[in-house]
Amino acid sequence: MKPGNVYLLRHGQTYWAMSGQHTGRTDVPLTEVGKQQAVAAGERVREAHPEAFAAVWCSPLVRASETAKLAGFDAKPCDDLMEWDYGRAEGRTRGQIGEALGRAWNLWLDGPQAVPEALGAERVETLPDGQQVQVHLTEGETLDEAFARARRVVEKVRAYSEEGKDVLLVAHSHILRLVAMAWVDLPPVEGRKFELGTARYIVLGDHKGQPVIEHWGA
């Protein structure tokens, strides 16, 4: 029996994705373009995979759950698919963090814990369309903590794959890259070398008993 595939779909465009602001647990909605991207992504996924998926899960955050719905999939929420908790980096750009830190900052190498406390104020931000979002802050997750969630996701979907069943996950760029790294048994930090655009998907599979990445960014 051929093992099943795992499809990983990133949510559509948001204003913070456009501006480069780190969007972890803040519930930033899709833009109108993001909604159109979600519909188109559903069409691309169904063209590649016309049959119904054995299971569909999504992050409970609105940008992911709305993407799943607009793409035409009935997804169950899965907390382990929530985006990396960026802590004080939430809503900030790399440039802002680097300026406050006095040196270049890299999420994958430095983690949220390196972000200066001065950037850590809870606040309400107004999006370009006038919507307001509440920015809640925590200490954030380390890379290993976020990767532990990704590994739990892989354990969940691998059980389906081993039965020859295909599944779909709809979530966020960083957590999906970590799921991909866990699937192919690469160190989590290697996820920084892969980019996944909005409303693009990855296909994980198996080749001769070896977990592989079959497609990236389709």
TrEMBL record:
PANTHER family: BROAD-SPECIFICITY PHOSPHATASE YOR283W-RELATED (PTHR48100), SEDOHEPTULOSE 1,7-BISPHOSPHATASE (PTHR48100:SF15). CDD domains: HP_PGM_like. Coiled coil: none annotated. SUPFAM superfamilies: Phosphoglycerate mutase-like (SSF53254). This is Histidine phosphatase family protein. Pfam families: His_Phos_1 (PF00300). Transmembrane segments: none annotated.
